[in-house]
Amino acid sequence: MKFKIASFFSGAGGLDKGFENSGHFDVIYANEYDKTIWDTYRANFPHTDLDTRSIKDLDPEIDVPDCDGIIGGPPCQSWSEAGAMRGIEDHRGQLFFNFINILKAKQPYFFLAENVAGMMADRNAEAVANIKQHFRDCGYHLEEPQLLNVSDYGVPQDRKRIIFVGFRSDLNIKYEYPKPTTPEPDMKRTLRDAIGYLDGSALPAIGKNDTNGSVCKIHNHEYMTGGFSTIYMSRNRVRSWDEPSFTIQAGGRHAPLHPQAPKMTKVEKNKQVFDPVAEKKGLYRRMSVRECAEVQTFPKDFIFHYKKIADGYKMIGNAVPVDFAEILAHSVYKKLAESTVIKNKLEESSLGLVV
């Protein structure tokens, strides 16, 4: 049997793919407003009903199907240390409440929400406390949100994210966040593990950073060209082959550099430089869209559709790493399967389940 879930702020579907890959969940409905993502989502989730309206325009009772769980990553830019840091005062931060209102209306067994580490900064404490109370007022038992680094869960990347998980209070479920699977330095997956097989075959973008399209022998294995800002050059952007990647960001111009290059050298505060010999050889290039996807643990047959290469980086950088999402899915399923209330409901009816 599989539980039915609805996905919001779905993006390219990293979280959705992880839940599906666990074998315990079917994503029956997804909501994504960004039109540059629609072709990618539809191509990779052909059996999911994709709703392209803004979440603000949805009537939960009419537009959202009954489901067993709700998952999603409300937009994170307003909470991000790299963004404007307006938090809940920003309209994007307020989209968290649209997510909560749908949860309140549909009352599924569980919900899972993901967001950036900056959300838990002291400046956002009051707003986060408000969000947690709203989840509880909806009738959900919520464990304290946890800050998890995906490199501790087999993902070849340092990426810290806040995870909220709640179960409907009547289920009497006490959730436990999954324990790290790769906590020690010698256990970490590296760039070599993730992208070593791709070395030497990437193509630069064409025109004004447009896609090469079918010219790429490996789908999406192309990288953004152009200069590097003073902000980018303020710190080292190169991880070696035997290290996990830096965080894959949503902006292509801020993509990590390929590990073929020597690490940058600090010459003064907030200023680093390239090795001149390596720079002359062209070794300092951004990681390709496909390389970023591999670091985010998207399957090799997951194809990203775009015209502007920046849209490819955006989709991947905003996603939840697929393998990390799968581990979260297994932890949620374990608790659902142990619930006496759900077991009794299954005996009485298959309502809400696909057998």
Key attributes of the depicted protein:
about 350 residues; alpha/beta; Rossmann fold; DNA Methylase, Chain A, domain 2; 2 domains; 9-stranded mixed β-sheet; two-stranded parallel ribbon; globular
CATH class of the largest domain: Alpha Beta
Percentage of residues assigned to helices: 25-40%
Distance between the termini: 4 Å
Q: How many β-strand runs?
A: 13
The geometry reads as globular
Radius of gyration: 21 Å
CATH architecture of the largest domain: 3-Layer(aba) Sandwich
Which residue ranges are poorly predicted, with pLDDT under 50 across at least 5 consecutive positions?
79-88
Helix-strand category: alpha/beta
CATH superfamily of the largest domain: Vaccinia Virus protein VP39
Q: Briefly note the CATH topology name of the largest domain.
A: Rossmann fold
Order of helices and strands: EHEHEHEHEHEEEHEEEEHHHHHE
On the 0 to 100 scale, the average pLDDT is 91
Note the main sheet: 9 strands, mixed
SS element count, helices: 11
